[in-house]
Amino acid sequence: MLSFRALVSSALALTCVAALTPSPTRAADTTIVFGAALAATGRDAREGVLTKEGYEFWKDYVNAHGGIKAGGKTYKVEIQYADDETNAQTSAKLVEKFINQDHVNFILGPYGSATSFASAAVTERYKVPMVEGNGSSEKIFSQGFKYIFAVLSPAKRYLEGVLDMALHQKVKPKTVAIVAANDLFSIEVASGAAAYATAHGMTVVYNNKYPADTTDVSSIVSAIKASNPDIILNGGHLQDALLLQKSFKEQNVLAKAYGYSVGPDTPDFRKALGNDANYVLGGTQWSPTAKYRGAPGFITSSSEYAKQFEKKYGHVPDYHNAESSATCLAFQYAIQNAGSLDPQKVRDALASLNVVTFYGILKFDDRGINVFKPMAVNQIQKGNLVTVWPSAVQNAQPAYPAPDWSKR
Could you tell me the CA-to-CA distances from 257 to 145, 167, 169, 208, 253 in Å, in that order? Predict the structure, then answer.
C-alpha cells in the first residue's frame, strides 16, 4: 500500500508533461461523454459494481427523458468505463487516457479515496471537472485542487451517528473500541469516531489499524474482546466488515452495538451473514426513507428512486448506488446552469451549485466537498435494512443493546 505522500508524487508525475492543454471535447456532438475508471477487479470490485449501477441508472433515466439541455442544445449521455483494478496508479492512468486519447467531456469518480485522489491530480492538471461520490477522505480536498467535487459527507462523520444514537438510549455506552483498515478513508473514519466519542464522555479502550488487504483479523478481534467495549466500530470496506463480523461470532465477542462504515447497507452483507447480520449498524450517506424533495429533471424523492432502482436492478439500492447517481446529477444541473460544455464554465457552475435532490443537498465548500449533507444510521433487523437515526428520517426504532449471538 503506497503512502499518501507517495500517491501524491506518483499521481502528479503522471501529468507532469510540457505545457499540456485540455484535449478537445465533444461539445460539437449531440452526446456528452463521461469517463469512469471503476474497480471491476480487486478488493473494491463489489463496491465498483454498485457505483456503476448508480451511474447507469442516472444515464438511462436521463436519456429516456429527453437528455440534458444546455445552451439551446439537447444532449444524450454516454459513459465509458475501464477497470482500475482497485489501484490508485491504474486509476490515474486510465483517467489520463480518457481525457487525452478518448476525448471525454468530463470524469465521474472511481470508488475509494486513494483512487479518487490519484484521479483528481490528473483532472486538475488537464482542467477537466471530476465529480465523485465514493471518496470522502478530506485529504483529497486539502491539496488546493479546483476541479474535484464530492457529493458525499466527509469520512470523519461516517460513524458519529452510531455513537449519537447509542448515547440517546436508556442504557448509555461508556466505552468504545475502534479498528480501521490502513487506508485514507478508513483512518479518517476512525479518527472522527474517536474524537466524537471522547468529546461526548466515552472512553476509547482500543484503537488500532490492520493492513488494507488483510484476510485474517483474528488477533485484532481477540484484542477487542479483551478490551470489553460497549460499542465496536470499524472504519473499512465490505470485505473487512464481513471478516470482522464472522470473527466476532467465532470468538463470542459481546457488545451492545457493532457499527461499520461500509457493509451493512449492501445486500451482500446480509446474504453472506444471515441472522448474524441482525442488529448491526452502519453509517449511511442516504436512506430510501429520507424526506428530501428534489428539484425537477430527475426522480425527486428517495422512496421513488428506491422503487424504480429496485425494479431495474432487482435489489433495493444502497447508499453507494444513490450517491453515484447523485454524482451524475451534480453534473446534470451544473451543465444546465452553465448552458455549455466548456470545462471551465461547468467547473464554475459546480462550485456555485446549491440544489436539493432525492439524495439531499448538493452544495460544495471552497474545497469542493459537501459538508452540508447529514449522515444517517441504518440497522439490520430481522434480515431487513431499516433506518433508525436520526428521528427525522427513521422508519424503525433502534434495536439496542444487541442480544447474545444465540438469540439473533
Answer: 38, 11, 12, 18, 11
C-alpha cell at 243: 471478516
Which residue type is seen at 325? Answer: S
3-state secondary structure of 116: helix
- CB within 8 Å of 381: residues ≥ 6 apart: 278, 279, 396, 399
Would you state the pLDDT for residue 181?
97
Nearest to 210 by CA among 189, 230, 187, 185: 187
- pLDDT tens profile 278-332: 999 999 999 998 888 899 999 999 999 999 999 999 999 999 999 999 999 999 9
Query: What pLDDT shows up at residue 392?
Result: 79
Residue found under cell 467495549: 229
Residue appearing with cell numbers 456528452: 32
Phi, psi of 403, rounded to the nearest 5 degrees: -80, 175
What's residue 111's pLDDT?
96
Amino acid at 99: I
Residue in 294, 374, 284, 368 with CA at minimum distance from that of residue 326: 294
Identify residue 124 by its one-letter amino acid code: E
Say how far apart CA 88 and CA 27 lie, in whole Å: 29
pLDDT for 377 equals 97
CA angle 199–203–207, rounded 5-degree value: 100
List pLDDT tens digits, range 382-392. Answer: 999 999 999 87
- What nine digits make up the cell of 11? 499521481
* Structural domains present in the chain: 4-154+289-363 (3.40.50.2300), 157-287+375-407 (3.40.50.2300)
pLDDT at 20 over 50: no
pTM for the predicted model, two decimal places: 0.85
Longest dimension (CA), the chain: 66
